[in-house]
């Protein structure tokens, strides 16, 4: 399993995405396609990006009954993505069904990553709306362990949590970490952040970086800086 920088391509149209990707002539970034672009452009956007030679993390965060998730995962797997994700809150039955659907006839499959609790869910909502009385870190770690026991490959988490996740779920359990900013750049709406170099130090396996690259004056230079800090 290789460490890599995943670029969160949060664009609203294929045109904007391709203008962005056309800049990258040497190293082709691992691309994250999220709900907005997928719902706007359909599965064709995945095929088109794949044809350009990029690896793809399809970030659709599935959460439904096991049978529906299994059949949906079969479709996503046939799109030949490299990584996709589901909500651990769907329970271990749903996670196992997702794995089954994702596994191709030859036994290969994309990496499957769990979302534990969304970072937008605060402690108050956890208790008052979701009626979960345990502290957030305990909930996150318990969901991560369920994902591991269900056979998933890893979790999305803050780089600040990467070491703890590796400690309780093992070093081979992948941590995919958004919330990355350069030391000298704008933090934006992210709160719990690390630099690419710090994320490397913390043991993150993949960093997910959006605006520090997509909104940079020179996106290729910003991407290369991430690669230098995180991988090289
Ligand atoms: O632009 P920025 O670097 O903040 O983008 C981070 C990406 O990671 C976005 O696509 C965002 O939706 C995603 N993400 C996140 N925090 C999470 C899960 C996903 O920022 N907990």
Produce the secondary structure layout.
Blueprint: E1 4-8, H1 14-21, E2 30-34, H2 35-41, H3 44-51, E3 56-62, H4 66-78, E4 83-87, H5 91-102, E5 111-115, H6 123-128, H7 136-149, E6 154-156, H8 162-169, E7 174-177, H9 196-202, E8 206-209, H10 211-214, H11 219-230
Parallel strand pairs: 1-2, 1-8, 2-3, 3-4, 4-5, 5-6, 6-7, 7-8
Descriptive notes:
This protein is α/β, with parallel strands linked by helices and 232 residues long. The protein has a single domain, classed as TIM Barrel, CATH 3.20.20.70. Helix content is 43%, strand content 16%. The protein is built from eleven helices and eight strands. The chain has an eight-stranded parallel barrel, surrounded by six helices. Strand 7, helix 9 and strand 8 form a beta-alpha-beta unit. Helix 9 packs parallel to helix 11. The protein binds cytidine-5'-monophosphate (C5P). The site of cytidine-5'-monophosphate (C5P) has 13 residues, from strand 8 and helix 10.
Question: Nutshell version of this structure?
Answer:
By secondary structure, the chain is α/β, with parallel strands linked by helices.
């Amino acid at each position: 399993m290789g460490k890599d920088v995943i670029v969160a391509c949060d664009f609203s149209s294929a045109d904007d995405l391709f203008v962005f990707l056309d800049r990258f002539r040497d190293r082709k970034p691992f691309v994250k396609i999220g709900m907005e672009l997928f719902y706007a452009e359909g599965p064709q956007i995945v095929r088109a990006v794949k044809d350009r030679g990029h690896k793809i993390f399809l970030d659709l965060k599935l959460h439904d009954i096991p049978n529906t998730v299994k059949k949906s995962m079969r479709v996503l797997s046939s799109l030949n993505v490299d990584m996709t994700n589901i909500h651990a809150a769907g329970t271990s039955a749903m996670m196992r069904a997702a794995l089954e659907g994702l596994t191709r006839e030859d036994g290969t499959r994309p990496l499957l990553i769990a979302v534990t609790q969304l970072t937008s869910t605060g402690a108050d909502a956890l208790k008052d709306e979701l009626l979960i009385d345990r502290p957030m870190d305990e909930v996150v770690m318990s969901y991560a362990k369920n994902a591991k026991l269900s056979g998933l490959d890893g979790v999305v988490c803050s780089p600040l949590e990467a070491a703890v996740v590796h400690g309780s779920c093992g070093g081979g359990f992948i941590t995919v970490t958004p919330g990355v900013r350069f030391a000298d750049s704008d933090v934006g709406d992210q709160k719990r952040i690390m630099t690419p170099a710090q994320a490397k130090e913390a043991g993150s396996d993949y960093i997910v970086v959006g605006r520090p690259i997509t909104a940079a004056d020179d996106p290729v230079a910003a991407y290369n800086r991430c690669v230098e800090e995180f991988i090289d």
